[in-house]
User: Fold Pantothenate kinase from Aeromicrobium terrae.
Amino acid sequence: MVSRDQGPYVELERSAWADLADDVPQPLSVEQIEQLRGLGDELDPVEVREVYLPLTELISLRIRTATELWRATEAFLRQPQPERTPFVIGIAGSVAVGKSTTARLLRELLAQSPDHPRVQLVTTDGFLLPNAELEARGLLERKGFPESYDRKALLRFIIDVKSGVEKVQAPVYSHLTYDRTDEVVTLDDPDIVIVEGLNVLAPAGTRGDGSPGAAVSDYFDFGIYVDASSKDIRRWYVERFLKLRKTAFADPASYFHRYSTLTDDEAETRAGELWDTINWPNLRENIQTTRGRADLVLRKGPDHSVKWVRFRKM
Ligand SMILES: Nc1ncnc2c1ncn2[C@@H]1O[C@H](COP(=O)(O)OP(=O)(O)O)[C@@H](O)[C@H]1O
Ligand SMILES: CC(C)(COP(=O)(O)O)[C@@H](O)C(=O)NCCC(=O)O
Assistant:
C-alpha cells in the first residue's frame, strides 16, 4: 500500500508522498536546516526534502488557488475589494511532538517562494493567561488546557488577521520565566501567518446563551496536525526535559532553575510526572480529539521521521 483512498481523505506512505516533489530542488542549505533544528536534535536534510518540500508545494498550490478564487469573487462582485488577507496555517499537536520545529521549517521553506516571501509565525503560548491569573483561578497545573488561555483575545487576534487589519499584535510568552512577557510580535503585512499551538484546531465553545461560538480554526486556510504515538511523544518530552536541565534550566533566571541540580534519575521522574499529570491528560482529552479537523496529518515514527501523510482532498 503506497496510497489509500479513504473517502474525503487520501493517505500516502512516505515514499509516495516524497515522489510528489521529486523534481523540486532543495531550497535550503544544510546550514539553514541546522539552524532550524530544536534542542540539538538532527533535522535530517533527507526528511526536509522528502516530507516538508512536498508539503510546501501543496500549501503553495492552495495559496495560488485561494488567490484565484479571491480574484474571481472580486470580479463577480464587480467592484474592487481590499487586498487579499494573509493565508493562515494552523499547526496543532501534543507538547513535544515537534510543532515548533515543523512551524519554523515551514516558515523558511514557504518564504523561499517569490509568490509569498513574507511569512510570520505566532505561537499561542503568548495567549496563556498570566501566571498570577492562572494561580488565582487554580489553573497553574493546567497550563496548555483550553481554559488556561485567553481564548477571546486569541479569537480577536485571528479575526483581525483575516479581516486585513494592519499591524495586528500578539503577546509573547517566555519559556525562561514561564510567564507572559511585555513583548509583542507585530504582523507586518505578511503573505502567510503560521499559528502554532496545542489547541488551535479545537472546535468552538458555546456562548452564554448556549449557541456555538466561533473557533480559531474557522479562520484557518490550512490546518496541520503533527501526530505520533503517545509513547514516543512521552519519550521525546522526557529527553527534551533532560536537555533543558543542562541548558535553559541552568540559567538562574529560569523558573525551573531548581530542576538544574536534579540527577538523571530524579529529572526523569519529574519529567514523567509532568507528562503523566498535565501533558498526557491534555493530549488525550483536548488535542488528539481535534486530529480529524486537520486538512493534513503528519504521522511520525519513533525517530521523528514521517511515516505517512493523510490529507483531505476537498
Ligand atoms: N523533524 C524532527 N527531527 C528531529 N527532531 C525533531 C523534529 N521535530 C522535533 N524534534 C525534536 O523533538 C523535540 C520536541 O520538538 P518541538 O518542536 O520543541 O516540539 P513542540 O513545539 O511540539 O513542543 C525537540 O527536542 C526537537 O528538537
Ligand atoms: C507553553 C505550553 C502550554 C505550550 O503552549 P502552546 O504554544 O502550544 O499554546 C507548554 O509548552 C507548557 O509549558 N506546558 C506546561 C506543562 C509543562 O511544563 O510541560
